[in-house]
Design goal:
The structure is a single chain. By secondary structure, the chain is of the alpha+beta class. It has 2 domains: 205 residues, Cytochrome Bc1 Complex, Chain A, domain 1; 177 residues, Metalloenzyme, LuxS/M16 peptidase-like (Cytochrome Bc1 Complex, Chain A, domain 1). Strands 1-2-6-3-5-4 form a 6-stranded mixed sheet, with helices on both faces. Helix 9 packs across helix 12 and helix 11 crosses helix 16. The chain is globular. The N and C termini lie far apart (55 Å).
């Protein structure tokens, strides 16, 4: 048995309605539960400087009533099943989802359909939610983790839409009109711009019929074209910036722009991030924390985007050790660029990723999410090749990756 085929036989369960809606159905009958997710291809990269934050604001507002359901009816129906109904906005997509016992499948499907096609934006609810979002922005501006990331992101991205905050700016949210919100909703919330991903205890034929009935009646505008964005950011020279904030220690992010989504070095980056900063045997932890004792915490990660990805190293230290820490990071990267990782390091990193992959895809929610994400950003065919592609990463790939992308480091820190 080939265990990396977590999603085997799914291709015949993917289809497209006449209106352009992509549907992915994954039976998983071990428990009587279902995850229903609608992914809309819209986020902050599709915004402008004048409406930055509108995607996130909309995500809040669609829950405030539809043509069929009031805000109270929505919560009452979902809660009677003991389920959750939630949403999230990123730079490149907005997701609406519920994880619910299978008895509530069709009620939940009806509600989610209403949210993405029939939201009514009641004026009183809109103004109430406007204040909620503004408070959320204020909290984010006070939260050290949010401030750290946004400043780091701003240093990395100067030209492309990735420079914009997902949450937006207070003055913009305060002035967005109801008409602007409705126009944006109608523009992007169209069937051909969505993926419906369902995983769980389902009857495929019965479910297909219901999906056709509920979702098939909505049309995509004939002239709607998913916007093609320029997401290629130019390389940055060495950047080092420090700001004061209400923190007890110094919090920092160091890193660099990585490859775009269709580059095979995406897999190299996943492996490198584990070698560098995952666990107490990683290079950053052993050298910078245990041997040099320069930091309290240190780790690394890799964040995939359609355009340039982000490879980052995060940590906590005393201000006097910040420059020394960044120098050590550069030294470790330089050593890997010259000598590559040891075979033991490489194999261990691949095993960690493999184990995490299996555990990360064991629930109906995670399976539905993986299927939707890979359909949007890469392909379902490549989804089942993930572990194979990880295992193909060589020491030379690691050396080449660092040569290509880590020739200059961007660092931002918050200090007391």
């Amino acid at each position: 048995m080939k265990y990396n085929l977590l999603f085997d036989n799914f291709l015949d369960k993917k289809y497209t309605l006449k209106n352009g809606l992509t549907v992915i159905l994954k039976p998983f009958n071990k428990l009587p539960v279902v995850s229903i997710q609608i992914w809309v291809k819209v986020g902050s990269v599709y915004e402008t400087d004048k409406n930055n934050g509108i995607s996130h604001f909309l995500e809040h507002l669609v829950f405030k009533g539809t043509k069929k359901y009031s805000v109270n009816q929505i919560s009452k129906i979902i809660e009677k099943y003991g389920a959750i109904l939630n949403a999230g906005t990123s730079k490149e997509f907005t997701i609406y989802y519920t994880d619910i016992p299978k008895d509530g499948l069709y009620d939940a499907l009806d509600i989610l359909c209403e949210l993405v096609f029939e939201a009514t934006f009641p004026k009183e609810e809109l103004e109430r939610e406007r204040n909620v979002v503004i408070e959320e922005i204020k909290r984010a501006n006070d939260n050290p983790s949010d401030v750290l990331f946004e400043n780091f992101n701003t240093l990395l991205f100067k030209e492309t839409p990735y420079k914009r905050k997902v949450i937006g700016k207070e003055e913009i949210i305060r002035n967005l009109s109801r008409d602007e919100l409705i126009d944006y909703y109608k523009k992007f919330y169209q069937p051909k711009n969505m993926i419906l991903s369902i995983c769980g205890d389902i009857n495929i034929q019965e479910l297909k019929s219901v999906i056709e009935e509920k979702f098939g009646r909505y049309e995509s505008e004939e002239n709607f074209v998913i916007p093609v964005l320029n997401l290629q950011e130019s390389k940055k020279p060495e950047i080092f910036e420090v700001k004061k904030h209400k923190v007890q220690h110094t919090y920092f992010l160091s890193g660099f722009l990585g490859p775009q989504i269709n580059d095979d070095h995406q897999y190299t980056a996943d492996v490198l991030s584990v070698i560098l900063g995952e666990g107490i045997s990683s290079r950053l932890y052993k050298t910078i924390r245990e041997e040099k004792m320069l930091v309290y915490e240190i780790s690394s990660g890799f964040y995939t985007q359609v355009g340039n990805s982000i490879f980052y190293i995060s940590g906590v230290c005393e201000r006097k050790n910040l420059e020394k820490t960044i120098l050590e990071i550069k030294n470790i990267l330089s050593d890997l660029k010259t000598n590559g990782p040891k075979e033991e390091e490489l194999n261990k990193a691949k095993q960690i990723i493999t184990t995490r992959w299996y555990f990360g895809n064991e629930t109906v929610h995670s399976k539905a999410s993986s299927l939707a994400w890979w359909e949007i950003f890469k392909s379902l065919e490549e989804l089942n090749m993930y572990i194979d592609n990880i295992n193909k990463v060589s020491s030379e790939d690691i050396k080449n990756f660092i040569s290509l992308y880590a020739d200059s480091i961007t660092s931002f820190a918050l200090t007391p």
